Amino acid sequence: MATAAATLRRTPLYERHAALGAKTVAFAGFEMPIQYAGIVAEHRAVRGSAGVFDLSHMGEFQFTGPGAGAVVDRLVSSDVAGLAPGQARYGLLCNERGTIVDDVIVYRVADREYLMVVNAANVAKDRAHVLAHLGKDAAFEDRSLGTALVAIQGPRAAEILAPRAEADVRGLPSFGVTRSRVAGAAATIARTGYTGEDGFEIFVANDAATRVWDALLAARGDAGIVPVGLGARDTLRLEARYSLYGNEIDETTDPIEAGLAWTCKLDKSFVGRDAIAARKAQGPGRRIVGLVVEGGVARHGHEVASDGRVVGRVTSGTYGPTVEKNIALAYVPTGLSKVGTTVAVRIRGRDVPATVVRTPFYRRPE
Amino acid sequence: MSTVPDDLWYSKEHEWVRAEGDVATIGITHFAQEQLGDVVFVELPEKGATVRQSASLGVVESVKAASDIYAPISGEVMERNVKVIESPELVNSAPYGDGWMVKVRLADKGELRQLLSPADYRSHIGETAGAGGD
Q1: So what's the ipTM on this one?
Q2: Residues A130-145: pLDDT tens digits?
């Protein structure tokens, strides 16, 4: 433990987490806060008010130059070419086999400048993948280590961020992005997140991270906002049915079976397009479904059984603090993927009944 | 409330035992619930089941993970706490009270002597917290 900890990276907010009494965990080579007050309390604060997250472990790739848009459009499954400056979109990096290298958000920050946010655990792999397809018309820079990311998520996020930001963040549309200042520091502000709530992600240079963090958490007392760790980030994203790389998606899964066909613009050329189109035409043999489990908590790796036979595997599972149910995502054969189908999850050798349900498990009130 | 009450026996695996005559009530300690975080599911043996010292007695699941509860003593389960199955958060809010797990008829009172005293348990968790952290 101690030797492993010595090699872990820390974000610029590490001292803040320690002062807040966070429990930390090794994640993607970083020592990250998993919880402060407790996962359930943090989860509920985000659904009911707002929470502030340190996501500085995430990777940030910058593409600039006259060919930047074309390069990113060729790398990413979704319609990057259709982004106007100030717009962002979710998409996938795929390989030629049509399986998933990573899931990313692409932000067209300026006319000839794109920001691609990638998963922390995949930074090195993604960088190699990008460089293999880069060509000569765009400049690429991996800015991951110099960039901090602070998110504020929840129904009160806009109200809390507005007085601390120069830009009109209330007027920023969903998946909008703008260059501005937060707490006096130069920042890229995006209306994106991974919680199922309204919210913002704020990219700043490392040396401005504590300023932004402190400014947002200054609203703690009156607004009921709290710092939120990776534990609640996971329960929030799972209720909202967002994929997690390494769980729902990886290089053995394709976008069709993962329920991410909507991110693939098949009438353009991108890496993996032909293989994905073929898989779509064929129809997937298995699909990701949402499960509600009665009488146990399903976890990543648990087997899914039907009529006593193993037919699939749980990719993520937890207790959902807002839906107040044990929820899971799992790959099952297409024939068992219909809403209402009953299967079982093998938990500690016992077949625990589970029902296929519509997802997301949680949808925020309009 | 003390986090290590003086009237209980303890196991190194962070269970407590309240012995009254030949009946033992078993739960997990304040330290254990703090380490686990929010408990969301508890699985316990039915009345009449036999539990063996140091073998798995049941499971507590926090939001993040499942952990075994080990039987600190051997015996026959007389009652399991239905309230804690319905409201697992009692393990966090009242680990020595309403968050108890099972009542067991002691098979061998001599086993109690193999458990830790409150003082020994205090130093046990002091060591654990100092050496490992998390």
Answers
A1: 0.83
A2: 999 987 889 999 999 9
